[in-house]
Amino acid sequence: MTLLVLSAGDLPGLLPYPEVVEVMGQALAALAAGQACQPVRTVLQPPGAAGLMVLMPCHLPPAGGAADEPGYGLKAICVSPGNPALGKDAHQGGVLISSARTGEPLALLNASALTEIRTAAVSALATSLLARPGAAQVAIIGTGVQARAHIQALAACRDLAGIRVAGRDAGRARRFADATAGLVPVPVIACDSVEQALAGAEIVVTATSSAVPVLQHGWLAPGAHVNAVGACLPAAREIDAATMAAAALYVDSRESAASESGDFLLAVADGAIGTGHIRAELGEVLAGRAPGRADDQEITVFESLGLAVEDFAAAVLAYRKALASGAGTRVDF
């Protein structure tokens, strides 16, 4: 058999943000409709290890029942928090997609690039569903790979007025703002503090590696929408309990949030919220089975954990476009 290999360099050209946002919506709607099968991801975190390994399988039948299309997906990644200091993405691994009919491997994709793009695309989707229609002032908390991707995704999918950036190191935030300013058609300005970046912000992204809250409720403007991206383990949180309690909370998966989201689980442990605090999954909002924001003053939070079906949908999009364009490398397998 022939396996198509798509590298980190191949994927940006195959996965423009508006198209990825569209397939993310389709994937989450399919999940909400019970069409996708995916267990909660398996996390291997050996004592004393520098990082952890995550396995994320899923199955989604091809549209129209085309048996030779991809139907199975598996992402296997290692998350190494020390990588950014080495100039590398913290996420390293691959996404394998296989035939729905025979199970034969069809393509192997670089997981770092795929995760970068699809995570930001899901946040852009959540923003389109939950932010106020005219929201245009963005605050990005973080200065890593996901911070850059979210700047590009949001700018590609809506009209923005400006982007403010903050991180734990003000000098790094300034360098990051300078480096990303040329990627989008709006000003990108570094701030000396998170509080300064959040002042008046209508759309907020937290994309840090912090295990303790970087965002406080008192810093948020009324009606702000928050995409909480960085904390994906039960013991880590970016969002303080007061914000979680005050906000309408949306998730990509209730099951994942109940087992993995430190933002959610630690707020429950603090007694700030109950286990039923989640208003809806994004797929339920897309399907019209759950409401979006109640009014212009309501704070909304989207807790992004990342799902196998999202990786699969993005991988299938890249696979189909690569077949049509001749992109990638084909190897005997």
The secondary structure category is: alpha/beta
Which range does the strand content fall in?
15-25%
Percent range for helical residues?
Answer: 25-40%
User: How many structurally independent domains?
Assistant: 2
* Helix-strand pattern: EHHEEEEEHEHEHEHEEHEHHEHEHE
Rg for CA atoms: 19 Å
CATH class division of the largest domain: Alpha Beta
The CATH architecture of the largest domain would be: 3-Layer(aba) Sandwich
* CATH level-3 fold name of the largest domain: Rossmann fold
Number of H/I helices: 11
Task: Give me the count of strands.
Answer: 15
Major beta-sheet overview: 8 strands, parallel
End-to-end separation:
6 Å
Give the strand order, joined by hyphens, for the main sheet.
9-8-7-10-11-14-12-13
Mean pLDDT: 94
Assign an overall shape: globular
Provide the fold topology.
Layout: E1 2-6, H1 11-14, H2 17-32, E2 42-44, E3 52-59, E4 70-79, E5 91-99, E6 105-110, H3 111-130, E7 137-141, H4 145-157, E8 162-166, H5 170-180, E9 188-190, H6 194-198, E10 203-206, E11 225-228, H7 241-246, E12 248-251, H8 254-260, H9 262-269, E13 278-281, H10 282-286, E14 300-303, H11 308-325, E15 329-332
Parallel strand pairs: 1-6, 7-8, 7-10, 8-9, 10-11, 11-14, 12-13, 12-14
Antiparallel strand pairs: 1-15, 2-3, 3-4, 4-5, 5-6
